[in-house]
Design goal:
267 residues, mainly alpha, MetI-like fold, 12 helices
Length: 267
Amino acid sequence: MSARLTGGMAWLFYPLTAATMLFVLAPLAVIVAMSVSANAFAAFPPRGFTLAWYGRVLADPDFLSSLSFSAMLAAAATAGALLFGLPAAFALTRCAVPGREALRVILLSPLIFPVLVVGVALLRLFSDWNSNSAPFNLLIGHILVTTPYVVRTVTASLLLADLSLEEAARTLGAGWFRVFRRVTLPQIAPGVAAGTLFAFMVSFDNYPISMWLADAQYVPMPMLIYRQVASIFTPAVPATSTLMILFAFVVVVLMERLAGLRRAMAM
């Protein structure tokens, strides 16, 4: 149950919430404003108004190639995170695993360690393995940094799940897979949805891992934007960033429609 703020407390928290949202969204608004500037170089406040930069970005083969590669990489990393994260969450919550707390710390350690350090360690590891496939190396690195999000959200959902419903289903003769599909999964669906969203967006926007493991042929979106900023900072760069923001917004809306993120965030 949720309690509503009334009286003086509401007058205190509403302005604070509005100020926080303004602080978070203001940089995004600046990026969007710079993307429609008619000037040859990115500047704020924008000079004039034009959508020509979006047309130039959408017609750029490098952008289209990088966007498709990042989307496929994020989808594959999310699938891998679910493949490893779901069993790990069940093992941590439902099984008497020796050293469970130590395993929990190890599984969640990528959330604590600096990602740049993780990227360097992966680069050294793949170098020792003589692994020269950038897509494979990136996939392993992105799975490593996204799996903890799935473990964390699914673990929270499993701790709130009603075990008596699963026991009743088993008593009535349902097998383990049917119990999972018909009883357990609907209860933990918000956690799975939240973990899926976090994993996809963390992979899609990841720069530190991609910086160490990408090459000239396979360039994720964050690397493409960095290279554009380092060369000529035209409004095409904010336009590319705005398209990434729009893509992230579409993903969130789709997840809300398909799985109900409001339920996930209310865990």
